[in-house]
Fold these 3 entries.
Entry 1:
Amino acid sequence: MWYAEADILAAEDRIAEALAALDTYDLHAVDEERAPAEALRNQLLFNLNASLKNLKTKLQAAWSEGNFGLAINCPPKV
């Protein structure tokens, strides 16, 4: 149940909630059941890392151009 919830949350790009659901799933799953959850977690963490790198690049560009309003208006999507 928690894996399905995590999968749906991931599809909705609700990464933090999906990771929390996967943590709950891991507490109740046996070893064989954890492989798909681990793959989903790895994909979510990869996507999160890519999003944060993209945000960092945008913030650095806005800061160097003196466009502080743009820096305030681009919060991370987590």
Entry 2:
Amino acid sequence: MDELFKAKNGSHEPTHLVHVASDILATSRECFDYLGNDIVDLHIIPFTKNSKLKRNHASGKLRPYFPFHIEQLNKPKVLFHELHQTSPALYSDLISFTESIYNKATIPNSLFEYELFLEVKDMVNEKKHNKLIAIVSESDQEYLVENKGFKMIIPRKRQTGYKYFTVAPGSQVSCVAEYRFEYNNREVGEFCLFAHKATELIIQKFYIDHFQ
């Protein structure tokens, strides 16, 4: 968020925000792929009867990208279908995860929607080809409130809940640009918050439930 505030108040060029946002999204995707690797190493390979799968794993030929789509789980010849035999409880939770994405469900104890993980995944895949994730700005769409030790962004668009607001003495209020990802038209701060916190919620639950 610091880089977002700096882009808004003009102390940093928006290009810095592009790099930081790209790193946040890439880290989210990498966390899921690390989980995919751990699932293969600890829940599939030690228990599978598939000798070809074991050989491919030993030679480094396996590419265990984390499954975001149910087709990556329920087709008999796909890698993670092995969990149906080797770790049924984990297999069931992965099926539930992909169904929650498809059904646009909300992650428990949060306001985040599962389906946004697909946007993170697709944006990171596109970044591999285009190097940077494009961000567009629209001027004077938010209020930036700043004082010592405190910063806050208040949107102006689509606001129906207030006619005015007050701030603490000594605060500086300015109209600033809103930054959105060109790929999905989502506000940068909100989407990066999702990529960080929602990823943490899901990854932690998988590890707590299946790796302890």
Entry 3:
Amino acid sequence: MGTAVAPKREGQPEEQLTKRVGTTKRVGTTKRMEETRDAYSTSGADGNYTVKLRNGESITIQGAITIKVLDHGELNLVTDTGRWYLFAPNAWKTAFPMQPEPGEADGG
């Protein structure tokens, strides 16, 4: 937590204000993401995925933390930003991890 000094007004003493740095929302989101990752830990690998649709189009899902085919054939992906993607059984054809381009490495 940081502090900020309020501007001094004539005739008033200098006041110190406490300013909140960061938010609890981010902490809560991070905790939910970790809980989701733990709950779906056997559901595919983290990373970027390409989903090929039945009509031939491809969609890139970046930062997936889970990928799972549900009981009725739905494709379910959850990303590290908290987005959920659900594809109907007859809407998708394949889903696979994206491969790095030649000469590019991921992971530093």
